[in-house]
Specification:
The N and C termini lie close together (6 Å). By secondary structure, the protein is of the alpha/beta class. The radius of gyration is 17 Å and the shape is globular. A five-stranded parallel β-sheet has the order 3-6-2-7-8. It contains seven helices and nine strands. 49% of the residues lie in helices and 17% in strands. The protein has one domain: Rossmann fold, CATH 3.40.50.300. Helix 5 runs antiparallel to helix 6.
Amino acid sequence: MTIGLPQKIHIIGSVGSGKTTLARSLSKTYQIPFYELDNVVWIRKDSGDIKRTEQERQEYLQSIIQADTWIIEGIHQEEWVSQSFQQADCIIFLDTPYKIRIARIIKRFIKQKIGIEKAHYQPTFSIFLKMFRWNKHFEEIGKPKFFTMQEDAWNKLLVIQHKKDLQNYFHQFQHGKSVSR
């Protein structure tokens, strides 16, 4: 089968895997809007985040995936997210090595605390510690659970461990070539 540039992309991976960075880069390069799943779950306010109801969250996600093009980044392994996997043309799983993710979590926290990098949340020490727990949980439980839950999406799954593999994949589209999977 020959396909062109994916127009509906879901990027998954653990904390510090590079999901948001990749989503921003692809969005800018290919002029495709991107959305963070965390912002589907939370209404961001200066006075503090408010969690959307299940219905609000479902409706918001529906409004995104009904569009012709989108990039969604994030992995919430609840059932409500599976519709974005089903609608995606391509699911990019950033399987960044564990030690690199740990280093990125530390680097991100320091940058947020000194004001170099913005965050959608208050970068507290408590959140910092949670990121390590989420990272470990994803490695031990989340990753295997994803592969079990999304068996029907394997044909559109691209597992990336090295940046060059991702660059090679998208490089094909930049030169007007189609890709066979």
